[in-house]
């Protein structure tokens, strides 16, 4: 009877949640999102479809930022503690 009371009163152990992304990943993703936002903002402010920024600068920065975000999500750091 006592063993049943001990088991019933004991809370199950909580395992710590595994975080697949570390702080560096989130900083890199935020940087990529900032570059994307600034690129679209630059195109909006230029208001010209055939402008220099819209044709030459923005496509390069947008593609680079999207690739950067993909890299940031896939990056895995080696943990020396394990």
The total count of helices amounts to 3
Largest sheet report: none
Termini separation comes to 42 Å
The strand count comes to 0
Rg over CA atoms, rounded to whole Å, is 24 Å
Global outline: elongated
The percent range for strand residues is under 5%
Low-confidence stretches: none
Mean pLDDT: 85
Features:
single chain; 82 residues; mainly alpha; 3 helices; 67% helix
Description:
With 82 residues, this protein is mainly α. Helices cover 67% and strands 0% of the residues. The chain has helices spanning 2-9, 23-46, 52-74. α2 runs antiparallel to α3. It is elongated. The model has no long low-confidence stretch (mean pLDDT 85).
SSE layout and pairings?
Elements (H helix, E strand, L loop, with lengths): L1 H8 L13 H24 L5 H23 L8
Helix pairs in contact: 2-3
Quick structural overview:
The protein has 82 residues and is an all-alpha fold. It is built from three helices and no strands.
């Amino acid at each position: 009877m006592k063993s049943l009371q001990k088991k019933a009163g004991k809370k199950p152990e909580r395992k710590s949640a595994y975080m697949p992304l570390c702080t560096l990943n989130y900083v890199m993703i935020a940087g990529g999102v900032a570059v994307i936002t600034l690129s679209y903002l630059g195109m909006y402010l230029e208001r010209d479809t055939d402008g220099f920024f819209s044709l030459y600068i923005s496509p390069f920065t947008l593609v680079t930022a999207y690739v950067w975000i993909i890299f940031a999500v896939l990056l895995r750091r080696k943990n020396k503690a394990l």
